[in-house]
Amino acid sequence: MSLRQKLKEIERANKATQVDVRRLVNEWVAAVHELYERVAHDLGDLIQDQVINVIRQPVTRSEERTGPYQIYELNLHVAGKTIAFNPVALFVVGANGRVDLFAKGRLDTRYHLLRLKGPHGGSDRWFITRADTLRKLPLPKLPELSRKNLEDAIETLVSK
């Protein structure tokens, strides 16, 4: 194989990889949007009563494999604090993406929301864990995100 042929083969493979990465980024952005919809649903009564105010704002993320992309951060204004859902990365060891949950201005307590992609286009599963605990369990053995542990996490973040 000549150098020309080898370089063209590498270029074709890189283009195919870029298309796959773009698809994964689009899936990630959609998964984070669905997570935010779920949070809004779970906290719907508190949002309706204006105990929690919700703001989504675009942010730019850049990862080695993706380059820059736009995604939304979700901010909850509650009890004089801003609780942020910050999408950190799509490519995370042991998960299919991570969103950090923390009170802005206070980084001593932080939660990781870890995504497990649904099989064959099925629903994603999200798991929650404190960032300061060493994760020794595989993802499916962590607590799955629920209204209860979401409320517990927000309560912890607001009370600190």
Task: Walk me through this protein's architecture.
The protein has one domain (about 5-160). Helix content is about 35%, strand content about 35%. It has helices at about 5-40, 45-50, 145-160; strands spanning about 50-65, 65-80, 80-90, 100-105, 105-115, 125-130. Strands 1-2-3-4-5-6 form a six-stranded antiparallel beta sheet.
Chain-averaged pLDDT = 88
The domain count comes to: 1
Radius of gyration: 18 Å
Low-confidence stretches: none
Shape: elongated
Note the run of SSEs as H and E: HHEEEEEEH
Spatial sequence of strands, sheet with the most strands: 1-2-3-4-5-6
Q: Secondary-structure blueprint of this entry?
A:
Layout: H1 3-42, H2 44-48, E1 52-63, E2 67-78, E3 81-89, E4 98-103, E5 106-116, E6 125-130, H3 147-159
Antiparallel strand pairs: 1-2, 2-3, 3-4, 4-5, 5-6
